[in-house]
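Example record for the data management plan.
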Amino acid sequence: MKREREPRVVFGFHAVLARLRSDPKSVIEIYLDEARTDARARDLVALADRAGVRLMRVPVKRLDGFGDGRHQGVVAKVQVQLSGETLEELLQNIQTPPLLLVLDGITDPHNLGACLRVANAAGAHAVIAPKDRAAGITPAVSKVASGAAESTPYLMVTNLARALEEVKEKNIWVVGADERAEKTLYETDLPNSIAWVLGAEGEGMRRLTRETCDILVRVPMMGWVESLNVSVAAGICLFESLRRRLARA
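Corresponding structural encoding:
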């Protein structure tokens, strides 16, 4: 069963267009800068018209009043669905070998948005994070995610270590990216069903999270920098899994 909550404000053409294409019934209304007459604005108008979504031309000052998001000339109000889907239900609904991204301690909205975007691009089935140490989906997250926040499941769990044990019970290997690991991800025989676990830049995963992992690997660093932004590391790990899947096909 799904419950609804207060509408969310979505900023920018990428996020609004993605929501219109993936779930037009959830878009309540769109506000478009009355001065925008370019091709991008015309495409948005046409798509909203085909979807039967109300679109209003408004002064840019009205768009500025929606908040701190960089609206680029368009803002939408969308209905957010509170999914009753549990982790167990999510895993049961995956029809192919699972590819998951688990984030431990990612509290910056821009980092979360970037991680959602790269997870979506790599075909990850879901992103999982703990409720006590994670950013939620906000307009800033949606903007950075460029539509991925509306199409990639983001599940926040009460106890991350317990959730990882549940993942392992489904024969999904939990692989942590840790700079102290002996082997790199390129030297390791990675499983097909995998949940990649990444911590915040600098701090890394929490001890209990690290101890729950089946395997620890590191991204080889060839230059002077000591760490990567978490979204960059997530992209490297997820796309390495994707590369191997494509090679096996």
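Summary line stored alongside the record: The mean pLDDT is 88.
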